[in-house]
Specification:
By secondary structure, the chain is mostly helical. It has two domains: 58 residues, Multidrug-efflux Transporter Regulator, Chain: A, Domain 2 (Orthogonal Bundle), CATH 1.10.1660; 67 residues. The chain contains six helices and three strands, in the order βααββαααα. A three-stranded antiparallel beta sheet has the order 1-3-2. α3 crosses α4 and α4 packs antiparallel against α5. The longest helix is centred in the C-terminal third of the chain and has 52 residues.
Length: 143
């Protein structure tokens, strides 16, 4: 069975050894310890898969506790349907959160566009005043 060092996993997944140690502290990874005083971490294929799933969960925007729950469920002998239903529930909650964020972003972008238009009109009005001409929008307002 293949084993990996922390450096090998860090290079493979393009993350830092510190990130791997953090995931270990969070209970997502449990490498074996070897060498004097257990200083060297040795990761089995199981730990590599758990790291891969953790990073995939992070890309999906899941929290570490959600990832841990799902990864632990992945390894449990429980019914696959229960596992899939839980994963579906987490994804649904995450989708709803992202949709709310998208609505907020759309509203914010609309507000920014309105402010930009106001600024452009004010700049045009200022330029027109300086040149002694009435801006087209100003003549409409007074008419």
């Amino acid at each position: 069975m293949p084993t990996y060092t922390i450096t090998e996993l860090a290079q493979e997944f393009d993350i830092t050894p510190r990130a791997i140690r953090f995931y270990e502290d969070q209970g997502l990874l449990s490498p074996k310890r070897e060498g004097i005083g257990g200083r060297n971490r040795v990761y089995a294929a199981r730990e590599r898969i758990r790291l891969k799933l953790t990073l995939r969960g992070k890309r999906l925007g899941l929290t570490l506790s959600e990832i841990k729950s799902l990864v632990d469920m992945y390894e449990s002998p429980k019914d696959t349907d229960a596992q899939l239903k839980r994963f579906l529930s987490v994804l649904t909650e995450h989708r709803e959160k992202l949709e709310r964020q998208r609505e907020d972003l759309d509203l914010t972008l609309s507000e920014i566009a309105a402010h930009e238009a106001e600024c452009l009109q004010a700049i045009a009005a200022n330029r027109a005043e300086k040149s002694g001409k009435k801006p087209a929008s100003a003549s409409r307002k007074t008419a």
